[in-house]
Design brief:
about 350 residues; alpha/beta; Alkaline Phosphatase, subunit A; 2 domains; 7-stranded mixed beta sheet; 5-stranded antiparallel beta sheet
Protein backbone atom coordinates (compact mmCIF):
# COMPACT_ATOMS: atom_id res chain seq x y z
CA UNK A 1 0.00 0.00 0.00
CA UNK A 2 1.22 3.49 -0.91
CA UNK A 3 0.45 6.32 1.47
CA UNK A 4 0.70 10.03 0.59
CA UNK A 5 1.46 12.45 3.46
CA UNK A 6 1.43 16.25 3.09
CA UNK A 7 2.95 18.26 5.95
CA UNK A 8 3.10 22.05 5.45
CA UNK A 9 5.22 24.23 7.76
CA UNK A 10 7.58 21.51 9.01
CA UNK A 11 10.52 22.85 7.00
CA UNK A 12 10.70 26.30 8.54
CA UNK A 13 13.84 28.36 8.17
CA UNK A 14 16.65 27.23 10.51
CA UNK A 15 17.13 30.93 11.34
CA UNK A 16 13.81 30.75 13.20
CA UNK A 17 15.75 28.92 15.92
CA UNK A 18 18.53 31.47 16.23
CA UNK A 19 18.38 31.37 20.03
CA UNK A 20 17.62 27.66 20.43
CA UNK A 21 17.91 24.32 18.66
CA UNK A 22 15.21 22.73 16.50
CA UNK A 23 13.43 19.88 18.29
CA UNK A 24 14.60 16.31 17.76
CA UNK A 25 11.94 14.44 15.80
CA UNK A 26 13.22 10.84 15.81
CA UNK A 27 10.63 9.17 13.57
CA UNK A 28 10.62 11.96 10.98
CA UNK A 29 14.43 12.05 10.95
CA UNK A 30 14.62 8.28 10.36
CA UNK A 31 12.17 8.53 7.48
CA UNK A 32 14.12 11.39 5.91
CA UNK A 33 17.43 9.59 6.43
CA UNK A 34 16.20 6.63 4.37
CA UNK A 35 14.21 8.46 1.70
CA UNK A 36 14.83 9.49 -1.88
CA UNK A 37 14.20 13.21 -2.34
CA UNK A 38 13.25 15.39 -5.27
CA UNK A 39 12.06 18.96 -5.62
CA UNK A 40 8.36 19.58 -6.23
CA UNK A 41 6.21 22.65 -6.82
CA UNK A 42 5.16 25.35 -4.39
CA UNK A 43 2.40 24.46 -1.94
CA UNK A 44 -0.45 23.61 -2.45
CA UNK A 45 0.23 22.63 -6.07
CA UNK A 46 1.51 19.13 -5.10
CA UNK A 47 -1.78 18.37 -3.32
CA UNK A 48 -3.84 19.71 -6.23
CA UNK A 49 -1.75 17.72 -8.70
CA UNK A 50 -2.46 14.52 -6.76
CA UNK A 51 -6.12 15.08 -7.73
CA UNK A 52 -5.37 16.17 -11.29
CA UNK A 53 -6.14 19.89 -10.95
CA UNK A 54 -3.93 22.98 -11.03
CA UNK A 55 -6.06 25.82 -9.65
CA UNK A 56 -9.36 26.96 -8.22
CA UNK A 57 -8.17 26.73 -4.61
CA UNK A 58 -10.82 29.10 -3.25
CA UNK A 59 -13.66 27.34 -5.07
CA UNK A 60 -12.49 23.90 -3.88
CA UNK A 61 -12.08 25.17 -0.31
CA UNK A 62 -15.53 26.78 -0.35
CA UNK A 63 -16.95 23.46 -1.55
CA UNK A 64 -15.13 21.73 1.32
CA UNK A 65 -16.53 24.38 3.67
CA UNK A 66 -20.09 23.31 2.74
CA UNK A 67 -20.78 26.45 0.68
CA UNK A 68 -22.90 26.13 -2.47
CA UNK A 69 -20.31 26.95 -5.12
CA UNK A 70 -22.53 26.54 -8.26
CA UNK A 71 -20.83 27.75 -11.47
CA UNK A 72 -19.64 31.11 -10.18
CA UNK A 73 -16.13 32.37 -9.67
CA UNK A 74 -14.62 32.20 -6.18
CA UNK A 75 -11.75 34.08 -4.56
CA UNK A 76 -10.37 34.05 -1.04
CA UNK A 77 -11.06 37.42 0.61
CA UNK A 78 -8.58 37.02 3.41
CA UNK A 79 -8.92 39.54 6.23
CA UNK A 80 -5.54 41.07 6.93
CA UNK A 81 -3.61 43.76 8.73
CA UNK A 82 -1.42 46.00 6.58
CA UNK A 83 1.34 47.80 8.47
CA UNK A 84 3.37 50.52 6.78
CA UNK A 85 7.10 50.42 7.36
CA UNK A 86 9.67 52.94 6.20
CA UNK A 87 10.33 51.24 2.86
CA UNK A 88 7.51 48.72 2.50
CA UNK A 89 4.13 47.50 3.75
CA UNK A 90 4.01 44.38 5.91
CA UNK A 91 1.08 42.01 5.45
CA UNK A 92 -0.25 40.02 8.41
CA UNK A 93 -2.75 37.29 7.43
CA UNK A 94 -5.84 36.21 9.35
CA UNK A 95 -3.86 33.74 11.48
CA UNK A 96 -2.34 36.76 13.29
CA UNK A 97 -5.66 38.43 14.06
CA UNK A 98 -7.75 36.05 16.19
CA UNK A 99 -11.01 37.23 14.62
CA UNK A 100 -14.13 36.31 16.58
CA UNK A 101 -17.28 34.99 14.90
CA UNK A 102 -19.11 38.19 15.86
CA UNK A 103 -16.39 40.42 14.39
CA UNK A 104 -16.41 38.39 11.17
CA UNK A 105 -20.20 38.59 10.90
CA UNK A 106 -20.21 42.38 11.33
CA UNK A 107 -17.48 43.00 8.75
CA UNK A 108 -18.97 40.56 6.23
CA UNK A 109 -22.37 42.25 6.58
CA UNK A 110 -20.70 45.60 5.89
CA UNK A 111 -18.93 44.21 2.82
CA UNK A 112 -22.12 42.70 1.40
CA UNK A 113 -24.10 45.89 1.92
CA UNK A 114 -21.39 47.95 0.24
CA UNK A 115 -20.65 45.69 -2.76
CA UNK A 116 -24.12 44.28 -3.47
CA UNK A 117 -24.53 46.52 -6.53
CA UNK A 118 -21.43 44.95 -8.09
CA UNK A 119 -22.64 41.38 -7.76
CA UNK A 120 -20.13 40.40 -5.07
CA UNK A 121 -21.19 38.11 -2.21
CA UNK A 122 -18.88 37.71 0.78
CA UNK A 123 -19.15 34.75 3.15
CA UNK A 124 -17.16 32.68 5.60
CA UNK A 125 -16.91 28.93 6.01
CA UNK A 126 -16.85 26.68 9.04
CA UNK A 127 -13.08 26.96 9.20
CA UNK A 128 -13.19 30.77 9.39
CA UNK A 129 -11.93 31.34 5.87
CA UNK A 130 -13.50 34.29 4.02
CA UNK A 131 -14.63 34.02 0.40
CA UNK A 132 -16.09 36.30 -2.24
CA UNK A 133 -18.35 35.00 -5.00
CA UNK A 134 -18.32 36.80 -8.36
CA UNK A 135 -19.21 36.25 -11.98
CA UNK A 136 -16.73 33.75 -13.43
CA UNK A 137 -15.88 36.27 -16.16
CA UNK A 138 -14.80 38.79 -13.51
CA UNK A 139 -12.20 36.62 -11.78
CA UNK A 140 -8.97 38.56 -11.13
CA UNK A 141 -5.41 37.38 -11.51
CA UNK A 142 -3.90 37.26 -8.04
CA UNK A 143 -0.87 36.38 -5.94
CA UNK A 144 -1.10 33.94 -3.04
CA UNK A 145 -0.95 35.49 0.40
CA UNK A 146 2.22 33.51 1.15
CA UNK A 147 3.96 35.00 -1.90
CA UNK A 148 2.55 38.45 -1.10
CA UNK A 149 4.35 38.36 2.25
CA UNK A 150 7.64 38.10 0.37
CA UNK A 151 8.85 41.31 -1.22
CA UNK A 152 6.74 44.32 -2.10
CA UNK A 153 2.96 44.09 -1.65
CA UNK A 154 2.26 46.85 -4.17
CA UNK A 155 3.75 44.77 -6.98
CA UNK A 156 1.37 41.89 -6.20
CA UNK A 157 -2.03 43.57 -6.10
CA UNK A 158 -4.87 41.82 -8.01
CA UNK A 159 -5.10 42.35 -11.75
CA UNK A 160 -8.58 42.80 -13.24
CA UNK A 161 -9.64 40.77 -16.28
CA UNK A 162 -13.19 42.10 -16.73
CA UNK A 163 -15.21 45.18 -15.87
CA UNK A 164 -14.65 45.08 -12.11
CA UNK A 165 -11.62 46.92 -10.74
CA UNK A 166 -10.31 44.62 -8.03
CA UNK A 167 -7.76 47.18 -6.84
CA UNK A 168 -10.59 49.69 -6.35
CA UNK A 169 -12.56 47.01 -4.46
CA UNK A 170 -9.53 46.37 -2.26
CA UNK A 171 -9.12 50.09 -1.55
CA UNK A 172 -12.83 50.52 -0.87
CA UNK A 173 -12.83 47.63 1.60
CA UNK A 174 -9.89 49.23 3.37
CA UNK A 175 -11.78 52.49 3.77
CA UNK A 176 -14.90 50.63 4.91
CA UNK A 177 -12.93 48.81 7.62
CA UNK A 178 -11.05 51.91 8.75
CA UNK A 179 -14.04 53.51 10.46
CA UNK A 180 -15.87 50.33 11.44
CA UNK A 181 -16.83 49.77 15.10
CA UNK A 182 -15.05 46.41 15.09
CA UNK A 183 -11.72 48.10 14.50
CA UNK A 184 -12.45 50.90 16.96
CA UNK A 185 -12.92 48.23 19.62
CA UNK A 186 -9.83 46.31 18.54
CA UNK A 187 -7.73 49.46 18.57
CA UNK A 188 -9.01 50.41 22.03
CA UNK A 189 -7.93 46.99 23.32
CA UNK A 190 -4.54 47.30 21.56
CA UNK A 191 -5.19 44.45 19.12
CA UNK A 192 -4.15 44.48 15.47
CA UNK A 193 -6.92 46.00 13.40
CA UNK A 194 -8.48 44.23 10.43
CA UNK A 195 -7.73 46.99 7.97
CA UNK A 196 -7.95 45.28 4.59
CA UNK A 197 -8.49 42.21 2.44
CA UNK A 198 -6.10 40.16 0.34
CA UNK A 199 -7.69 38.49 -2.68
CA UNK A 200 -6.13 35.23 -3.90
CA UNK A 201 -6.81 31.63 -4.98
CA UNK A 202 -9.23 32.57 -7.78
CA UNK A 203 -11.09 30.06 -9.94
CA UNK A 204 -14.21 28.01 -10.53
CA UNK A 205 -14.90 24.57 -9.16
CA UNK A 206 -12.85 22.25 -11.40
CA UNK A 207 -13.48 18.82 -12.81
CA UNK A 208 -11.00 16.27 -11.50
CA UNK A 209 -8.84 14.00 -13.65
CA UNK A 210 -7.45 11.37 -11.32
CA UNK A 211 -5.27 9.43 -13.75
CA UNK A 212 -3.68 6.12 -12.71
CA UNK A 213 -3.59 6.74 -8.93
CA UNK A 214 -7.10 7.56 -7.73
CA UNK A 215 -7.56 8.67 -4.13
CA UNK A 216 -9.91 6.45 -2.13
CA UNK A 217 -9.67 8.03 1.33
CA UNK A 218 -8.56 11.43 2.62
CA UNK A 219 -7.57 12.07 6.22
CA UNK A 220 -7.47 15.81 6.90
CA UNK A 221 -9.17 18.76 8.52
CA UNK A 222 -8.72 21.60 6.03
CA UNK A 223 -11.38 23.01 3.68
CA UNK A 224 -9.06 22.31 0.72
CA UNK A 225 -8.50 18.64 1.55
CA UNK A 226 -12.21 18.18 2.32
CA UNK A 227 -13.19 19.85 -0.96
CA UNK A 228 -10.83 17.69 -3.00
CA UNK A 229 -12.16 14.57 -1.27
CA UNK A 230 -15.77 15.53 -2.03
CA UNK A 231 -14.96 16.28 -5.65
CA UNK A 232 -13.15 12.98 -6.13
CA UNK A 233 -15.74 10.88 -4.34
CA UNK A 234 -13.20 9.79 -1.72
CA UNK A 235 -14.29 9.09 1.82
CA UNK A 236 -13.09 11.51 4.49
CA UNK A 237 -11.97 11.33 8.10
CA UNK A 238 -10.15 13.58 10.53
CA UNK A 239 -6.36 13.51 10.40
CA UNK A 240 -6.44 12.23 13.98
CA UNK A 241 -8.14 9.06 12.68
CA UNK A 242 -5.48 8.27 10.10
CA UNK A 243 -4.61 4.97 11.80
CA UNK A 244 -8.00 3.62 10.68
CA UNK A 245 -6.25 2.91 7.39
CA UNK A 246 -4.50 0.02 9.13
CA UNK A 247 -7.85 -1.68 9.76
CA UNK A 248 -8.88 -1.61 6.13
CA UNK A 249 -7.78 -3.25 2.89
CA UNK A 250 -4.28 -2.69 1.58
CA UNK A 251 -5.64 -0.80 -1.42
CA UNK A 252 -3.70 2.24 -2.58
CA UNK A 253 -5.12 5.74 -2.57
CA UNK A 254 -4.83 6.74 1.09
CA UNK A 255 -3.87 10.36 1.66
CA UNK A 256 -3.10 12.32 4.84
CA UNK A 257 -2.99 16.14 5.07
CA UNK A 258 -1.49 17.44 8.33
CA UNK A 259 -2.04 21.15 8.98
CA UNK A 260 -1.24 21.26 12.69
CA UNK A 261 1.90 23.39 12.28
CA UNK A 262 0.74 26.08 9.86
CA UNK A 263 -1.03 28.52 12.19
CA UNK A 264 1.83 28.40 14.74
CA UNK A 265 4.36 29.13 12.01
CA UNK A 266 2.34 31.97 10.51
CA UNK A 267 1.94 33.60 13.93
CA UNK A 268 5.62 33.15 14.77
CA UNK A 269 4.70 31.00 17.78
CA UNK A 270 7.88 28.93 18.07
CA UNK A 271 6.88 27.18 21.29
CA UNK A 272 3.47 26.21 19.92
CA UNK A 273 5.12 24.96 16.73
CA UNK A 274 7.68 22.94 18.72
CA UNK A 275 4.99 21.22 20.82
CA UNK A 276 2.86 20.45 17.77
CA UNK A 277 5.86 19.05 15.86
CA UNK A 278 6.79 16.77 18.77
CA UNK A 279 3.17 15.58 18.99
CA UNK A 280 3.06 14.80 15.25
CA UNK A 281 6.31 12.86 15.49
CA UNK A 282 5.03 10.78 18.40
CA UNK A 283 1.41 10.31 17.38
CA UNK A 284 1.61 10.12 13.58
CA UNK A 285 5.12 9.42 12.35
CA UNK A 286 6.22 6.90 14.97
CA UNK A 287 3.34 4.50 14.16
CA UNK A 288 3.75 5.32 10.45
CA UNK A 289 7.39 4.27 10.65
CA UNK A 290 6.37 1.06 12.44
CA UNK A 291 3.81 0.34 9.69
CA UNK A 292 6.52 0.68 7.06
CA UNK A 293 8.81 -1.64 8.99
CA UNK A 294 6.21 -4.34 9.51
CA UNK A 295 4.95 -4.24 5.92
CA UNK A 296 1.46 -2.78 6.46
CA UNK A 297 2.56 0.14 4.26
CA UNK A 298 4.95 -0.44 1.35
CA UNK A 299 5.72 3.16 0.47
CA UNK A 300 5.27 6.64 1.95
CA UNK A 301 5.46 9.72 -0.25
CA UNK A 302 6.09 12.62 2.13
CA UNK A 303 5.61 16.13 0.70
CA UNK A 304 7.18 18.91 2.75
CA UNK A 305 6.47 22.43 1.43
CA UNK A 306 9.25 25.03 1.58
CA UNK A 307 9.14 28.75 0.82
CA UNK A 308 9.08 28.52 -2.98
CA UNK A 309 8.89 24.79 -3.67
CA UNK A 310 8.37 21.46 -1.92
CA UNK A 311 10.65 18.62 -0.90
CA UNK A 312 9.10 15.30 -1.92
CA UNK A 313 10.66 12.34 -0.11
CA UNK A 314 9.80 8.74 -1.00
CA UNK A 315 10.46 6.11 1.67
CA UNK A 316 9.92 2.40 1.11
CA UNK A 317 10.10 -0.62 3.37
CA UNK A 318 13.20 -1.68 1.46
CA UNK A 319 14.92 1.70 1.80
CA UNK A 320 14.52 1.56 5.59
CA UNK A 321 16.91 -1.38 5.58
CA UNK A 322 19.61 0.70 3.88
CA UNK A 323 21.30 4.01 4.61
CA UNK A 324 20.94 5.82 1.31
CA UNK A 325 18.79 8.79 2.16
CA UNK A 326 19.60 12.36 1.15
CA UNK A 327 19.48 13.56 4.73
CA UNK A 328 21.76 10.85 6.04
CA UNK A 329 24.57 12.21 3.88
CA UNK A 330 23.83 15.72 5.07
CA UNK A 331 23.66 14.64 8.70
CA UNK A 332 27.26 13.43 8.52
CA UNK A 333 28.14 17.10 8.15
CA UNK A 334 26.31 17.72 11.44
CA UNK A 335 23.37 19.52 9.89
CA UNK A 336 19.92 19.40 11.45
CA UNK A 337 17.12 18.08 9.23
CA UNK A 338 15.97 21.71 8.77
CA UNK A 339 19.40 22.87 7.62
CA UNK A 340 19.62 19.90 5.26
CA UNK A 341 16.18 20.53 3.82
CA UNK A 342 17.06 24.11 2.94
CA UNK A 343 20.56 23.33 1.66
Amino acid sequence: MKFDVFLPSLLVSPHWFADSSPPRLPAIEILLAHGRAQVGEEWPKPLLARFGVDGGIAAISAYGDAINTDEAGWVFAEPAHFQADRDTVNLFPASHLDISADEAAQLLDALNANFDDRGLVFSSGAAGRWYVRCDALELPQTTSIAAAQRGTVFEKLPQSTGKLSWRAIQNEAQMLFHSHAVNEQREASRRLTINGLWFWGEGVLPTLSMGSRPVSEVFGDTPLSNGLAKLSGATTASAAQWDLVMDKSHANGKLLVLDALTAFHERGDMEGWRKAALALDAQIFTPLLASLRNGVIDEVILTLPRTRDSLVVTITAASLRGVTGWWNNMSKRRRSFLESAHA
